[in-house]
Design brief:
This protein is mainly beta and about 100 residues long. About 0% of the residues lie in helices and about 25% in strands.
Length: about 100
Amino acid sequence: FCPRGSPTPPRGGATGAWVLQTLDAGDAVIDEALVQTPSLRPDMLQSAEVRLLSRRAGDVTTALVCFTASNPVPGDGGMVRLTFPEEFSLVVPAADGLASGVGGM
């Protein structure tokens, strides 16, 4: 049988084992197995965009980062990482702007 509508965890990665059992009418276990689930893949970011406020070569500017994630970014230590191409020389490689719509940030 294939139960439909089973929710998956909100993050990619390994999941724990499932317990599969057959039971009699009184809920006594007849057969039992631990079933390993496959690792869940991270989903793709939607509407991802990096926009430079100045597009003039040599300017010091700000990069605006926008995206929609289908999985939540944990507010208790979760991160958003942006890797710039080698040609960029970052003056301050730390975010000091507003993180909108991200729990805990």
